[in-house]
Amino acid sequence: MSKGTARVLQWGVAVALVALFLVLGDTSQLGRLSDVSWPWLVLLLLATAGLVLSASVRWRTIAVETMGAGDVPLSRFIHYFLMGRVLGFVLPAEAADMGIRTVALRRSREMSLAGAAYTVLLDRLFDLVVLVCLVVPALFYLGGRLDERVALGIGFAVIAVLPAVVGRRYGGAIRFLERLYRGLIRGFRFLPWLRKAEVPELETGPERRGLGGKSAVSSYLLSVVKLVMVSLRLYFVAGALGVEVPLWMAFICVPLAQVAALVAVTPGGLGILEAGWYGILVWAGVAPEETVLLVVGWRLYTFASLLCLVLGMRIREAAVGPRD
Questions:
Q1: How far is residue 198 from each of residues 101, 126, 316, measured CA to CA in Å?
Q2: Residue 281 or 95, more confident
Q3: 106: domain range?
Q4: d(CA 299, CA 292)
């Protein structure tokens, strides 16, 4: 299958899924999208900035430790991260994030493609670790086995003790997660547009590719901060739209939605993310007539907050230059 045909197929599936989402869902509340509380949107912008900053600092920490990329300023990592996120709204999100960041980092410094891909892979693996800690108790909550306090307590307790548990076998844990992630990528090779994709070879390589314990802990803590920022974004979007979503519910729903995003192979995850968010939010107790409003508002206003940050970066670079 040609690339052009694959793109047409991707967009066709995306449009069909979005249409199905809007036809089957209750769209009567969408008029409230223009009637928002602006203070909540300001908080959304701040949370998005916190997400971008924590993710970029983590990625730079990994790149400096493993590939000696200390000469690349933080502003470049922020810029590349924003590029991946924004283009992830029109391309398959995972492919856009990993591919664009890998190529951009390689071009900014004398670094092999495998080396740049390695930094991005390790960066995403920390996300995966934190998500797994919360996904299992979240599923038990949605299944009625645990109440919200116990579910979140278990999840955050695991997050708190995990570094100590895996610290003694840190290298083995990293290698296991690398194999797991490569397996997930290979698992989707049946899709025509991924059939020819190359999975980066992540051999151990030279000693400088090892991630030290302190850097690993800081990267892990930044991953927790990033998850908090993502959860706050859902809470702030709901507040802006007047939809009742308790903060604890945001921490329950976001990890599950992010797992669904891993298989969102349509451009921007269109249709797949909407269906995933809708099912999770209704299951968690959000009124069905408000769920479509919240899902569309989440898509619209989180994208707008990213565009605001991109505009801010462009203005800054025009004023002081692209490098710190």
A1: 16, 22, 36
A2: 281
A3: 3-195+207-320
A4: 11
